[in-house]
Structure formats: C-alpha cells, structure tokens
Fold this protein.
Amino acid sequence: MRIVLLYGTKTSAKLVMVSSCGDKPEPFTRWEVLCRGGDRSSVRVFAVKALFSGASFPGIPRNTEVDIRDGVLRLESVVVYREGPQTPRLTHRAFDLGDAEAFFRLNSDPEVMKFTGEPLLSSLKQAAEAIECYTDFERYGFGRWACVQKQSGKVIGFCGLKYLPDLHEVDVGYRLKPEFWGRGFATEACAACLDFGFRILQLNQIIAMVMPANASSIGVVRKCGMRCEGEVFYEGIPVLRFVKTNASVSGSVDPV
C-alpha cells in the first residue's frame, strides 16, 4: 500500500490511502513514522492518525508521496518554519542560545508571568535549557517565535503558534517585556501570527486562552478578530476561550 496526495496547497495537503492495485482503501491499523535518518517521531504517528481521520498535517509539501512498506509509513519531508512573519516593526524567528539572557528577563518578570499560569524562571541556565529543549519547530513545523524589534535588533518578547495535543488545537500566544506594553506591539505580532497560520499553514481555526482578569490580552485578541466562546478550564485554570476561523481561504485544513 502507499499514501499519495489527494489535493493540497504549497504547505499543506489532505491525503488518501490507496492500494497499489487500485483496490478500495481499507482502514490501516498499524503505523509507525520514521524521520529522516530513521529516528522515530511520536508526533508524526499522531499526524498519521489525523490524516486517516480526514484531518491534515501542516508541513507536508505539495506533491509529496510516501510509501508504506511492512506496515511502516515513511515520511521524508516536513516543512519547518523557524522564521515567522515580518511586520513593519518586528521580525519573528526561533529563539537560539544567544537569546538566553533576554528569554530569562522575560520569563522571570512577575508582571509578565502574572497571567500565564507558569512558574518564573530562576536562572540563566534554566532559560538556556528551555531554549535548547524546545522542540515544537522540529515536531510540528511551527512554534513560538522570538519577537525582534527591527529598530534595535533586540528581542522584546515572543509571539507565535503552539499545537496543543490534548485539545487537537493550535493556540496563538504572546509575551512581551513591560517596557514594550501599550505600544501596539502585541496586536501587531498577534495579527501577523494569525495571518501566518491561516495563509501559510492553511489552518482551519486558531484559538487563544486568556485569563478573565487579563483585560489587556482580551483587548489584543479582540482587536485581532477573535471571538469569545465562553469560559473553560485548561490545565486546572479558568480561562476565556477565543477563536478565529479561516474564512478567507477555501480548502483550509484542520490542525494536526
């Protein structure tokens, strides 16, 4: 058996399973996905499950063909977007170890972390380890990008997309240093990342989860066109769930 593209765009595609002799497709019950070099990747195993259920995996280029031999799906090509959108004032790119000090300053500031539900970083070493161990780009093709101010070349925070496997959703989130609050950077970055998710990744929808007391972030996501669906609990914390759907692109695909 083999899997071939049924249809798709430059960076996303829905797949159909067909047999080599043209027989009617049957459910495939055993799968294992191998990365380049033969390493196993659990996220791609999940992607296969999603593909067979009619969803799609952002990151499979158009005209990709992958084979199943001996019950193993071999997927050779996944697009990784370590560079995100450009805006008039910001560049978005993946963090590297040279950003450890800026990352530490951001994530050790009580005001910044007030509405995140996450603990403060306690050392520069911890910040470096967090950067080094961040695998979302390799796993999903996208992630949280460092926001770099073009004027100064300095990292002022982060913004980007995060796949939440427990919800099967893609979330937009941001965090900025306090000296850059109230200057429109959050809205600028968030809007650009939403556009990237819809236009480049061809996602069906993107969510945001904001604590009810975080009035500033509620204002940001609303300015970006996200609508509130009500209060939910996520990781034991009450949050407001905001959603924006991809109405501008026909044939948009579900998140991984």
